[in-house]
Write a structure and sequence with these properties.
This protein is mostly helical. It has 2 domains: 48 residues, no CATH class; 201 residues, MetI-like fold (Orthogonal Bundle), CATH 1.10.3720. It is 80% helix and 0% strand. The protein has 11 helices and no strands. It is globular, with a radius of gyration of 26 Å.
């Protein structure tokens, strides 16, 4: 007859955390955090006095160099801003179209092949690992300076983000409709079309708008490496020390991104 102790082993006794032990743990954790911050300050030489001493320099730069803006430069800014918007729009659209099928391959409840599933997940991780500015440098070297390299860089980077977000949404759908379609003999395309898509469409549209919002901001940075858009002329004007033109670009960018954020947040709020 088997020993009852082996069948029902006695659970390990858990010792309650005493106030003294809790204080010791919190104190130790706080001390470690403080030490890490001190080491970081010395490593980066980001001493508080350097930050405080920099405020007057920044103030004088804004008052003396950036102000007033040169509004006669607005026409040139508007054309580059339109190019920036087109870059973000095209890249977000391409990414949304490509990321949707990839998200199904990266969802464990759709892709039942464990090896292929893991391969797709690792591939998407790779896309998200490479910064968009590095992708822009690579595409500038391949296709040359201009908006095309920026569109390609943003598309590749956005695919990684969108496919990740959508795949997690697919994995969180109600499995009932999926199992019902499979039980009635439906194939994987019918499962996706009638079981998954109706459940994820609002999130899919919301995530696509979110990526569009990100790409508008990211396209400004890509211009510094020659990938077109308003960042290209911003870099040029900074190099020429035309700070009144730089001020115009910054103000227009701020207003544009603020408006896009408001519209995007409103639309995503309705979709969700």
């Amino acid at each position: 007859m088997p020993n009852s102790e082996n069948i029902n082993p006695t659970p390990r006794k858990r010792h309650p955390v005493t106030p003294k032990g809790l204080k010791w743990s919190l104190g130790t954790s706080l001390l470690i955090v403080i030490v890490l911050y001190i080491l970081s300050v010395y490593q980066t030489t980001a001493f508080p006095n350097r930050v405080v001493d920099g405020f007057p320099i920044i103030f004088n730069f804004v008052v003396d160099d950036l102000w007033p803006p040169n509004w006669s430069y607005f026409d040139r800014v508007a054309m580059s801003l339109l190019e920036t918007w087109n870059m973000a729009l095209f890249s977000s659209t391409f990414a949304a179209l490509i990321a949707l099928p990839m998200s199904f391959l990266a969802a464990s409840n759709i892709n039942r092949n464990a090896y292929f599933y893991q391969f797709i997940r690792n591939f998407l991780n790779l896309l998200r690992t490479i910064p968009e500015i590095i992708l822009a440098v690579l595409f500038v070297a391949v296709v040359g300076i201009g908006a095309v390299s920026g569109i390609l860089a943003l598309t590749v980077f956005s695919i990684g983000i969108l496919a990740k977000l959508i795949s997690e949404t697919v994995e969180a759908v109600d499995p009932g409709p999926l199992e019902a379609i499979r039980a009635s003999g439906g194939n994987v395309f019918q499962v996706i079309s009638f079981g998954v898509m109706p459940q994820i469409l609002p999130q899919y549209a919301s995530y696509s708008l979110y990526v569009l919002e990100i790409n508008v901001k990211a396209s400004v940075v890509l211009g510094f490496v020659g990938a077109g858009g308003i960042g290209l002329i911003l870099n040029q004007q900074l190099s020429l020390f035309n700070y009144d033109n730089v001020s115009t670009i910054i103000i227009v960018l701020f207003l544009t991104i603020t408006i896009i954020d408001l519209i995007s947040n409103r639309l995503r709020g309705r979709l969700e």
